[in-house]
Amino acid sequence: MKLYEAQDLQGREVVIKELETPSKEKVNRMLKESWMQACLSHPNVCRLLGSYYYMEGHLYRCGIVMEKLPTDLRHVIQEALRWRDPSGQVMTEAKVWQYLQQLVSALAYAQERSISHRDIKPDNLFVDPSQCLVKLGDMGATKQLGPEEAESTVQGTVNYLSPLLRRQHYWNQREGRTEKAVHNPFKSDVFSLGITSLEMALGSIPPDVNRLEDQQEAINEAISRLSSYSDSFRAFVRTMLEVKEGTRPDFLGLRKILFELFADALAGAGLQGCCFCFSLPSSSVTLPCGHLLCSKECLLHYIALVTNGHKLQLSTVTCRFCRTPLPQEILIPLYPEGYPPASESLERCKYCRSMIQPLGISRCAHRFCLNCLKTLKMTGRKQPKECPECQEPFDAKQLKKHKSMCVLS
What we know:
By secondary structure, the protein is α+β, with helices and mostly antiparallel strands. Helix content is 33%, strand content 14%. The protein has 4 domains: 2-67, Phosphorylase Kinase, domain 1 (2-Layer Sandwich); 72-268, Transferase(Phosphotransferase) domain 1 (Transferase(Phosphotransferase), domain 1), CATH 1.10.510.10; 284-334; 344-405, Herpes Virus-1. It has helices at 24-39, 73-82, 93-112, 163-175, 185-202, 215-224, 231-240, 251-261, 263-268, 297-306, 328-331, 396-401; strands spanning 2-7, 13-21, 48-56, 59-67, 71-72, 115-116, 125-128, 133-136, 143-144, 284-286, 292-294, 347-348, 355-356. The protein is globular, with a radius of gyration of 22 Å. The two termini are 22 Å apart. Residues 342-346, 377-381 and 404-409 have low confidence and may be disordered.
């Protein structure tokens, strides 16, 4: 695997992740990674700009093109250690809250699409420090689960594994086995985010936190070291680091906890920028209460979140921090064709029923998400040429753009 930095034709800085291999399985794995990333259109998920594969002699060359951010969270933590706050804080509480808000928002959005990251750690979180912006990246371990499906694979980086997975990993190593562990992958990812939060606050992971015996006691002791942080912050980290999976929330529960129980802590942290993604926008919508929302994209994402995917009325939309109702004159112009909107961004995939930004390949009324496109390969061809529901031919130009999403046969 090689990483390149480049500029695209629009002059944007991009990262190219490229693989050269004779294995079709490895190529398909990388293409699956691109599908997963393309399924997640969120301000705090690294944007997929393209993917490709082609033959070169007897080898496949496969790549993913992504937006480039200046650094990753690992380097931000290391830099913060050099300039530690006099109070002992490695990163200020306001900054950690800011990063956590963005990550919880992105990971809850992914869970709504049944997508689990499975390898959350500072190395896979990319940062633009000038905007205090963090984005979820490196989807190599990501998996989309079916309805009611439990994950059994022990996947992730050892120091960030949940207690259940770490214990299974330990016994597998000791016994030379490859046993699996049935677990909730979203709750496992919540624990990984909790460990990452400790690392942001302390500068490193306390070694006792991952011991197999009396782990909750060790975690509570590590959290008690956050004496310069607020009670609200310590309580939120403790929520993520519950050892028993049954009492630990998934990301949908964690998002609800964050914005219902800890909204005052977020507001009190003096956070600036968009109150959905916290980036510092060049253009924005200023609410009557003084808080900001990025123009249109973040505002639409936020409305969908507050109205439960547009099942509730617009009157339920209030400012995240101060609970001031958003005026209808701001909301109504976003939906010129009426509310609930029938725009492309709110259509459902025919197969997985996720709310999607559909591909532009269907001339008919049937819509499919990027991840489900591979399930359309039922005609025996490398890429379906027509809608399997009504046999309407796909748009040839749009289909050509999405050729890289086909699996090799």
